Amino acid sequence: MAGQTNIRPIAGAVAGWSEHGHGNLSQRLATALRRQIEAGLIVSGSRLPPERQLAADLAVSRSTVTAALDILRAEQLVVSRQGHGTVVVSNEGSGMAANRIADHLVVGSGGIDLAVGNPADASHLPAVSIDVADLIASGAGPGFQPLGLPSMRSALAEMHSLRGLFTSADEIQVTAGAHHAIAVLLGAYLVPGDVVAAEVPGYPGLFDVTDGLGVRVAPVELDRGGMRPESLDAALTEHRPRFAYVQAGVHNPTGRVTSAARLRALAAIFDRHETTVIEDTTLSELVFAGRPSVDLASLCRRAPVVTVGSWSKVFWGGLRVGWIRAPEAVIERTLHRRLAADLGAAIPSQLFCLRLMPHLDEIAEQRRRFLENNVRRAAGLLADDVPEWRFEMPSGASVLWVDTGLDDAAPLEHFAHRHGVHVASGSIAAPGRDVDGHLRLCVDRPWELVDAGLRRLGAAWRELSRRPARVAG
């Protein structure tokens, strides 16, 4: 029996379709869907959403969707039967993986980008440089250092030790960012059907990784203080997950910061269950009040805690440098896992980060002040321009988690794209990409871009509000 394909991956995968290709709207939509089917991103046997729902989600008329599907039916890519819907019947794809990240970095690009949560460029960094002599002096030899440059591993170990977590260089593995670190860790230990406990809503990239591995997520509820201890205890008791994923510092996407008292309560639960914790510290430097003085790695006594981190949010995403801090046995196992597809992080990027690390406190403080100012100004603009929306003021980082009041924010995401601004609907922050009425808005951009983007978003909202279900095709 054909399985119902969640409407969010399909809608997200074809974002921007109306501005690309040739022909009328229905022909352009058919082209976008055809590309997804032929690439295996909409797999054989998937049942597409009902035409009325797909039309609402894509912000077009139902006749546009019907005409697009007629083209695909004629090409024998889909077949429709009364009572069974429309089913994809021709491709060799194996699954839908990494759709959340792809929505941001590939299919969703264009216009003003308020979806991707990284510095817009590297202009905030101090002047540093490396040359060929530095590459030679690094001791990297032919350039293959699967665990990372020894000097970078030592610097990261020293950083953790100075923060109260004694670490040796042998307990550090350099990765291509925290997302890569999470994928390497889970891929080295988990098999399809295994379980990871995680905050929901949560980091979209985690759910891309679990989807790709065939791993189930046991959701842990949040309140204003962070992970709810009762929900965590229940998830660990019922599902006995191999890992629990926790964000240290600022939570993505809600912007909340867990208090030290709540962290101690969570640590006690992890210790009681002896659950292995992956603690993602990527946003710890961007708490507006300053980096928290404690984290789970310093509080847990019996539960193993593996730390992942990245310089993408503080320095620049293009450096692609992150790390794993873990016992040597974990470092060894994950190394052999990654060597099947990856021979190590780029040496020049690691050297560049080594030049920046002595300036970390200064750069982080500058980033905090910039982001706090943009968040405050963005909140004021939204309160004036779209007063019906609701959101909490974040305690750090760059994201506003906005409750639009809609059952599903996907149509608004598509209207916004037509107005020249790229935003992310809240379904990206859930493991099943269930429909959600939130928007995830990143304001880590020059204010002029944020201002223009939010005003375009407000215009899109007002157009959608006038035509909440359909747009003439």
Word description of this protein:
This protein is an alpha/beta fold and 473 residues long. It has 3 domains: 3-88, Arc Repressor Mutant, subunit A (Orthogonal Bundle); 99-123 and 362-466, Aspartate Aminotransferase, domain 1 (Alpha-Beta Complex); 132-358, Aspartate Aminotransferase, domain 2, CATH 3.40.640.10. Helices cover 42% and strands 14% of the residues. It is built from 17 helices and 18 strands. β12 (276-280), α12 (296-299) and β13 (305-310) form a beta-alpha-beta unit. α2 packs across α4 (62-74) and α10 packs parallel to α11. The longest helix is centred in the C-terminal third of the chain and has 26 residues, at 360-385. Mean pLDDT is 87; it is low at 1-8, 93-97 and 468-473.
Give a short synopsis of this structure.
The protein has 473 residues and is of the alpha/beta class.
